[in-house]
Specification:
Length: 177
């Protein structure tokens, strides 16, 4: 038998302990995400994968907001975040700070996620796009890599928070060995 654990048995860190923990060298950049529920889910995903920071850009709503809180389940308190109005300025700043910038989008010449080689000595910035229009072309033009999650069904894309989970797992899996 394999018994399901109770929440208190999971031994998760407190918010205070989590904030002091060493983070994986990755930041998430949200490029004009519209949905409050998606933003909340992305906070929760960033917490789950111990992301260094979350950047909310352009029209992306910011906490505090009841709808964000509903899906974040407190992750707005544990995850470090910052609002950046101009994503192009932010991407340039991240590149200057030594980040490898990865846009997640469907393009003519993507790097499929399963072919990504995560380097231990690099910092990564992962850009996720708007639910309708995706990552802006001018942002893709600045990216060092364009990652694509392979899909085999009839739909054109994944929900942005689901996509973030898949992409972050690929990075964290390489670091957590």
């Amino acid at each position: 038998m394999n018994r399901k654990l109770k929440l208190w048995e999971l031994e998760r860190p407190s918010v205070e302990v989590f904030q002091q923990m060493e983070k994986f060298p990755i930041v998430l950049v949200l490029d004009g995400i519209r949905s409050l529920n998606n933003v909340g889910a992305l906070f929760r995903t960033a917490d789950a994968f111990n992301v260094n920071k979350l950047f909310l850009c352009g029209i992306t709503p910011v906490p505090p907001h009841r709808e964000i809180q509903k899906t974040a389940l407190g992750a707005t308190e544990s995850v470090t975040w910052e609002y950046a109005e101009d994503i192009l300025e932010l991407v340039a700043k991240l590149k200057d700070q030594g980040y490898t910038v990865c846009a997640v989008e469907q393009t003519e010449k993507p790097l499929f996620l399963h072919n990504l080689v995560v380097e231990d000595d690099r910092k990564y910035a992962v850009i996720l796009g708007n639910e309708v229009d995706g990552v802006q072309q001018n942002v893709i033009n600045l990216a060092d890599l364009v990652l694509e999650v392979p899909q085999f069904g009839t739909k054109h894309s994944l929900n942005v928070s689901v996509c973030a989970g898949v992409v972050l797992w690929e990075f964290v899996r390489a670091w957590a060995k």
